[in-house]
Amino acid sequence: MSVQKNRILVLDGLRGLAILLVFLFHGYYIWGKTYPFGDLFKDNILVRYGDLGVQLFFLISGFVILMSLEKTSGFIKFIKNRWIRLFPSMLICSLIIFFTAGFFSERPLGIPGWKSLLPGILFVDEGLLERIFKTDFPVLESSFWSLYIEVKFYAIFGAFYYMFKRNLALLGIFIIYLVAVSYQILEFHHLLPAGLLPFKAYIGNFVYFGWFVSGALIYIYYNSRDKRYLYAFVVATICAMFYMYRLQDMTRNLYLIVLILIFLGALFWKPMEKFFSMRLFTFVGFVSYPVYLLHENMMISWMLKINRYVQIPYSVLPVISFALVIPVAYVVAEYLEPPIQKKLKSILK
């Protein structure tokens, strides 16, 4: 198998790990007032910090997006390719969520109205749409937030890449991150000038950009073995760890460090690469995008339905409920998404 194929395979495995961590967070921790078992697992470190799977997704995205940019001839083509990659599953999954909401009536977020479809389909967060149109846009799925950040990164980094080339583009993204996280730190300590406070609503997304930079830097090192980029990765990653200044604690930081080491190990250490190239991880990675879009409310609804009729140990109830989402995601990834992507490519070529 070629290096290229190995690389893509292990990245799928890492996506599988990332979505499993997010599942732990959503399935055992964040909805304590809704779960049949309440806050039973709230002190379990593995589930409490499972949301950091999103940071692993961002590292992978930084790696993959720079790889994609190097293979794409221009900005418009790059944006088309990204949209074709993201839009079909988002459309399909949004419609599935919307039209099955009546059956999954136990949804923590309630039954969505039609306006809740627009943010996901447009890849624009609800808050921005509400400020533009002066009306509410209810949340269809809370996990969509990271897609809105990804799209911002694609647009800005892609524009920088084709205007200024790779290194300056990465520097530009990193400066955006530094400005955003500096704003957050100053605001937290009440040191921000009053005139800058209104920007709080717009700057929050950019505190995640440091992770994309780290992923891109390790991609460069992966290909070149130029140690300057490895050192730059270390510096960028240390800075990126301040992305959520309000929530910083030692355990969260240690969890992040472990995930970063896993990310590096899967890319550079053969035993770990083989481990994350196993079918379990690569299959979950293959369906990770539709699973991520679909799983949260659907899984919790299944938990409540099952618990109503069958007494299952609470430790495995979320696992069974999550497993019921996987076949739907597989159908989306394997059978529904590809023909739509193919058609869009033929239209937009």
Helix/strand/pairing category: mainly alpha
The total tally of domains equals 1
Unreliable segments of 5+ consecutive residues: 1-7
First-residue to last-residue Cα separation: 30 Å
Q: What share of the residues does DSSP label as strand, in percent?
A: under 5%
Most strands sheet: none
Helicity range of the residues? Answer: over 70%
Average predicted local confidence, pLDDT: 94
Supply Rg: 20 Å
Oligomeric state, counting identical vs distinct chains: single chain
Write the layout of secondary structure elements.
Layout: H1 3-28, H2 45-48, H3 53-70, H4 75-100, H5 117-122, H6 126-133, H7 145-164, H8 166-188, H9 200-203, H10 209-224, H11 227-240, H12 250-268, H13 270-276, H14 279-286, H15 288-309, H16 317-348
Helix pairs in contact: 1-3, 1-13, 1-14, 1-15, 3-7, 3-10, 3-12, 4-7, 4-15, 4-16, 7-8, 8-10, 10-11, 12-13, 15-16
